[in-house]
Amino acid sequence: MARRNNLEIAAEIVSICKDGAKKTWIVYGANLNFRTINRYLDWLLGSGFLQKDGGMYTTTPEGEDFLDEYERFKNKFAAIPLFWRRVD
User: Fold this and answer.
1) Is the pLDDT assigned to residue 80 strictly greater than 70?
2) 31: left (phi over 0), alpha (psi -120 to 50) or beta
3) Phi first, then psi: what are they for 20, rounded to 5°?
4) What whole-number distance in Å separates Cα of residue 52 and Cα of residue 58?
5) Which residues contact 9 (CB under 8 A, 6 or more apart)?
6) Calpha distance 64→14 (Å, rounded)
7) pLDDT tens digit string along 11-68?
8) 6-80 is classed CATH 1.10.10.10
9) In sequence order, which residues have a C-beta less than 8 Å from that of residue 86 and are 6 or more positions away?
10) Cα–Cα distance measured from residue 65 to residue 70, given in angstroms and rounded to the nearest whole number
11) Cα(first)–Cα(last) distance of the chain, in Å?
12) pLDDT at 42
């Protein structure tokens, strides 16, 4: 399995938080450790893609827009011939 980049991990976290999620759920759902998740959560909160209420993280409208744009971008590049993509 190929390693995920920061954008893929961020999109996965924002997606996990769509219906609200505690930090532990995010850690297990995104297959990350607690030290790593803290950096991503700080970044996503600061970017306005997530909000925190008590111990629950939820996706904001800006986070929903990010996911939509990410999916469009990913789908565009899926159409590029294989020789342009990195193969591990």
Assistant:
1) no
2) left
3) 90, 135
4) 6
5) 30, 32, 40
6) 8
7) 999 999 999 999 999 999 999 999 999 999 999 999 999 999 999 999 999 999 999 9
8) yes
9) 2
10) 8
11) 8
12) 96
One-letter amino acid for residue 19 of the chain: D
Q: Give me the residues paired with residue 59 across strands.
A: 50
Largest CA distance in the chain: 47
H helix and E strand count, the chain = 4, 3
Q: In this structure, what token pair is assigned to residue 65?
A: 């827009």
Residue type, 85: R
Instruction: Report whether 15 contacts 70 (CB < 8 A).
Output: no
Sign (positive or negative) of CA dihedral 72, 23, 60, 18: positive
Domains of the chain, residue spans: 6-80
